[in-house]
Write a structure and sequence with these properties.
alpha+beta; four-stranded antiparallel sheet
Amino acid sequence: MKKLLIIAIMLVGLVSCTKTKEEKMQENITNELLQIMDDPSTFQFVSMEINKTFTVGERKKVMNDERLKKAEELGMTGLVKQTKKEMEFLKYKDDNMEGVYYVRFTARGSNKFGAIIKATYSATVLNDDDRTVAHFKQMN
C-alpha cells in the first residue's frame, strides 16, 4: 500500500511539472523578446492571446517552395528562415492537426532611454513539443 502511495505521489509530481502549451509559448516568446530588449532585467509579462490556429493543411498551402523561392529572390532573410522552419515542421504532419498558432504578446520594459514602455508583438508558433517560435516581430 505504501508503495502505491509513493508511486501516486511521484506521478502527481511529474504531471504538475509538465507545462501547458500556453506556458511553453509564453516562455519561448519571452526568450525571443529578451534577446532584443534594451534592458532585459526590466521585462514584465502583460498578456498573451492565441489569435488564430491553422491546421497543417492550411499552412502547407501558404508555406511552400514557391513562397520560399520568392522570399530568396527578394532577399527577405527573415521570411526565408520562417518559411524553411515551417516547411520542415509541416512536412510529415497530418493535414488535419493543429499546425501553427498566431499569437499576440504584450510586455513592458525599459527602452534605451530608461523609459518604461509597453509593446505588443506578434509571433508565429509551431505546434511541436517545444512550441518553437518560427517568427517574431513588434507590432507597435
